[in-house]
Amino acid sequence: MDGPRAPDPRSGKANALDEAAPDAAIDELVTKNARLATIVDELAKARIETLEIVATAGGRVDHATESAGQRIDMGLRVPVAALEPTVDRLAELGEVRERTLSTENVTAEVLDLDARITNLRSLSERLRALLDRTTEIDEILRIEAELTRVQSELDSLESRVARLRGLARMSSISLTLERQRPKQILGPIGQVWKWTWWSLGKLFVIRDGPA
After folding, report:
1. How many domains are there within the chain?
2. Which helix (H) or strand (E) holds 150?
3. Residue 49 domain-assigned (yes or no)
4. Is the residue at 5 inside a domain?
């Protein structure tokens, strides 16, 4: 005799946009991110100024790596409203080599994920209720395996939603600070070689002739 069957995880699936009330107000979730690369005169000073700019904006530094005293790569987070003013201030630290701003509306994705999360939570509750009533070992093992799968998927979706909502509140800035390479100054021997090559060039070309 077959025992109670676990609910089909595909049953009751609904589209998040279809479930929303027609006149319900839905706050848009838009993520904004920036990429900035600058050449600076003093790397250490630029780093300190970067920390001050980010702190003033109410942000934080997620990570920072330095390469042989020549370059620093930083991951910054600032409130969305402060993104562009912060990038403007960071751009003043030196000569801008790269500057990009990207935006993405993730409202529909979050609504869809929320609907899937609601369905999975409901499914999990039904599975647990079914597990309490089941006495057959095989069926218990099958329900427990399905519960494990549902919980794993639920954790993944909740993590994704939390990340998207976090990005909609705090924008990310990928910043690269690179030290200006000092100009080479020729020494006495270098000056001699430069003058020699200039003189050799004059031996072959005196001046341009008439067209």
Report:
1. 1
2. helix 137-169
3. yes
4. no
pLDDT of 69: 82
What would the mean pLDDT of 185-193 be, rounded to a whole number?
58
DSSP 67-122: ETTTEEEEEEEEEGGGHHHHHHHHHTTSEEEEEEEEEEE-HHHHHHHHHHHHHHHH
The vertex-48 CA angle with 47 and 49, nearest 5°, equals 90
Task: Give the SS3 label for residue 60.
Answer: strand
Task: Return the SS3 of 59.
Answer: coil
The SS3 assignment for 18 reads helix
Give SS3 for 171.
strand
Burial (CB count <10 Å: 0-12, 13-18, 19+), residue 109? middle
CB-based burial of residue 100 (10 Å sphere; 0-12 exposed, 13-18 middle, 19+ buried)? exposed
CATH of the domain at 77: 3.30.70.240
Each residue of 27-68: pLDDT tens digit?
Answer: 789 899 999 999 999 999 999 999 999 999 999 999 999 988
pTM score, two decimals? 0.62
The mean of the pLDDT values for the chain is 83
* Domain with 77 in it: 30-106+171-179
